[in-house]
Amino acid sequence: MLSAVNVAFFFLLPELLESKGYTGWIVHGGAHGFMMGGTALGVVLGGYAADRFGVRRMLVLFMVLTALAYQGFLLLPKLDAAALVPVCLLTGLILGAGQPLPVSMGQQLVPRYASLISGVMLGWTWTFGCLSQPLAGWLAERPEVGLVGALSITGAGNVVACVLAASLRGPVQGKEA
Question: pTM for the whole thing?
Answer without folding.
Answer: 0.88
